[in-house]
């Protein structure tokens, strides 16, 4: 299930914040997002380890109908998922270990960006070199466990962290449109 934070403007929303309550809901958000994407689009995915960047990418890849399992490209840095039909390919990049624009340039992504949708995890501060037009998406999850009451043995209770429920699947996804490609594109329908 997804919920959107209230929009405060009447025109197209350049930023939308969507709360999801499970990995499936995050993938469903990715599927809705895929409907807006076209060849040449660059999407920057930001968030901590385990935030759900790859889960969102899986929803995008599934809805785009690309071949191959969309998984974290950490060890290969960039993986191309060919389109199964007439749509664009999906280039899934993990820029975590890329420390300079020279290293990014060495991947030679420029030659494929125009014909593909490029998703770049950990791309903040790096993807800007690929395109002035992009979606900047931040995926955040609650930190810490949920508080539970535990007996102390002296008849009192104290709050403890319930590690079994540290990650209950909830995410807050902020999607910001940057550049003229996204002018006039209303992101509010992404809330489902």
TrEMBL record:
The lineage of its organism: Bacteria, Bacillati, Actinomycetota, Actinomycetes, Actinomycetales. Keywords: ATP-binding, Cytoplasm, Hydrolase, Magnesium, Metal-binding, Nucleotide-binding, tRNA processing. It comes from Actinomyces succiniciruminis. GO terms for molecular function: ATP binding; hydrolase activity; metal ion binding. Required for the formation of a threonylcarbamoyl group on adenosine at position 37 (t(6)A37) in tRNAs that read codons beginning with adenine. Is involved in the transfer of the threonylcarbamoyl moiety of threonylcarbamoyl-AMP (TC-AMP) to the N6 group of A37, together with TsaD and TsaB. TsaE seems to play an indirect role in the t(6)A biosynthesis pathway, possibly in regulating the core enzymatic function of TsaD. It is found in: Cytoplasm. Signal peptide: none annotated. It comes from the Bacteria. One of its GO terms (biological process) is tRNA threonylcarbamoyladenosine modification. One of its GO terms (cellular component) is cytoplasm. This is tRNA threonylcarbamoyladenosine biosynthesis protein TsaE. Belongs to the TsaE family.
